[in-house]
Records
---
Amino acid sequence: MHPKELITKYLQFFEKKGHTIIPSASLIPLNDASVLFNTAGMQPLAPYFLGEKHPEGPQLVNIQKCLRTVDFENIGDNTHNTFFFMLGNWSLGAYFKKDSIAMSFEFLTSKKWLNLPLDKLAFTVYKGDAKIEADEAAARYWESHGVSRKRIAFVGKDNFWSAGETGPCGPSTEIFYWSGKGDAPAEFDAEDETWVEIWNNVFMAYNKDSDGNLSNLPAKNVDTGMGFERTFTTIMGKESAYETALFIPVIEKIEKLSHKKYEESKKEMRIMADHIRAAVFVLGDANYVVPSNVDRGYILRRLIRRAIRYGKMLGIEGSFTSQLATTTIKIYDDIFPELQENKKRIQEELQKEETKFALTLEKGLREFEKMAARADVISGKDAFLLFQSYGFPLEMTQELALEQNITVDEVIFKEEYTKHQKLSRTAAGGKFKGGLADNSEETVRLHTATHLLNEALRRVVSKDIQQRGSNITPERLRFDFNFDRKLTSEEVKAVEDEVNRVIKKGLPVKREELSFEEAKLLGAQMEFGVKYGEKVSVYFVGDYSKEFCGGPHVKNTKEIGKFKIVKEKSSAAGVRRIKAVVQ
Ligand code: SER
């Protein structure tokens, strides 16, 4: 099948069912300050879920350009992409669960459409919570189409979907495809990653306010999102989208340029192909941005420079990003004509960025090697030097460090960065969303939530727990800590409850400058392996937590909102990783 065929089929099927085809919105929303890039097909439609009338009617379908940097570290695996397409069909009060499930089922299994074997499909439905009952209705609708109960799992958090901390939301039912070789097991295990999520149908009936209260939306809506790359890969019977027509020409081009084989350099080639594709769509968009050190431009810069570094690791000589862009454009330009129209700009901007970075990359790498040889931690000052003089985004230094099993002192780096911004006064209104000194409201709330989580883990699970790393974006927090087994779901819930209990108390958050010794005597938490200076800044959350940190934080825990753990998994031997959001 040609990739375009899947798109055409999807649009045609839903058009036949009374939907109007609408164009993909821009990848870069100009009227929505809450996000840097469109992360889901429903995002541009949010006002219509809240009750506004859509000019094209109550049943819509499209393919939407999306970009998510939340799963940055997963890029290179079989199922994640930074940039991706989401196929979506929507009901603005027109149909609900029963019809939505019937249409998804027909599209996936009918001979005329995708003709996927029912035997390879499985489904999750919402298991319910204190306010919303378990979605027995959705389970029964799947059963009415011949799905076995054994292939339906009732799941918690993952099956309640909301785009942001407030706004339209609801329970969902997710559709999974068995990607393994041979027969799928009779019983569905939602934790087994061989089952790949391909489609998410959200029953958007609620609106969430900033206190986390749910109220009914004016109508019961449906928002669905089908992962285009994953579904196409499934249909083609491949392991990963990189091994389909969506990426093969680019991978082949990289093989040629590097004189290496994909089989031996999968990770590098996948990251390059993924990041260049994302850059092509950002630069080719009507609301395009160019590489810079702030906001969207910083994310773009990070993507391009990471691709360049991987290219150099493969031994590619001379510049190559513009060539890879040309190949990428050819794959998609019949579906997205803006790529052809803006081809010159895409190529030139990539070339400019590559020329700039080529001047410093090698020297910077040599500098990094010297720093890494000196200590187990790259100091904040050194990381800042790499940023300032060699153009290394912090995340690149962190990745380099990780490859050598050492860490980067992020706290001091950020202090250095902020200090420098103050000196040069180029802070452009203090806006660094998604960038370095990302002081967006979301990030600040998540930052304080991270301190509470750190303390709650010690109080609820084990007093020996210590932070091993953390990373915060406006969308979520990620926290690594030492612990040698998976947390039970009861423990996860208890930690979550503990954090929410403290948030509700409305504790004040205060910063103090202390000498390192004083802070240590007070028992302030510090990150394992990080070297601190003589004077340190310590943040106190009431009398609940004290922690070495450069900030910034909320003034009162009440500002955080509702805290929710969305994932708990292994990160390295003896290290667990939690991802959490605030709503
Ligand atoms: N909004 C949901 C998602 O992103 C379904 O479209 O998964």
---
Amino acid sequence: MISVAIDGPAGAGKSTLSRKAAKELGFIYVDTGALYRAVGLKFIRAGVDENLNCDIEKILADTKVDIRFIGGEQHVFLDDTDVNDEIRTPAASMMASAVSAKPEVRAFLLQMQRNLANENNVLMDGRDIGTVVLPNATVKIFLTASAEIRAERRYKELVEKGSEVTFEEVFEDMKKRDYNDSHRAVAPLKQADDAVLADTSALTFDESLALILSIVNERLGK
Ligand code: DC
């Protein structure tokens, strides 16, 4: 099986680019952030807050997370219910970030991710795919852009949706998340030694997509 691991910080355009690249390659796209979001949702439903003062193992023992592909698109199921929309709320994002720092949660989701890659040609995106989940991935890409550019893109997106945030707020939030993601004790965000760095700071979406596809095709000898 062929596996493409794409890791990188928040706001680098990972998921949009990965979905499109997977389609072009004819691979299954696995958005691993959605798994952490589903676990986060479970903890919200259990009445737990971000401090996670609870018996994590006990809640996980009563949690079922799985991925099903409907019309070629990934849908995440929590306890047999499709939660694809619910996991996209700001509350679920915050909880996903909190639970993803817990080793029990990372262990809980590890095998499922590996199984998907064992059974399918996958393009999997996340923070630790090339370093922890699929250390033997066929192709590893570390997709990034400067914090300022990522904040600018996110700011435009939010303004288009009618949000009244300032650029400074988005920029500060981006820097804080970068720090948290790369300084946590378990599976921190970092470029794998054998990953190809793709910096999209100066690239358009189409140019970024072309860059990803060229890295993959070169590795595959195409
Ligand atoms: O990519 P995202 O925003 O959907 O990810 C949600 C959270 O899950 C984010 O705080 C980072 C975390 N995450 C992780 O720790 N490891 C992954 N492989 C994917 C996401």
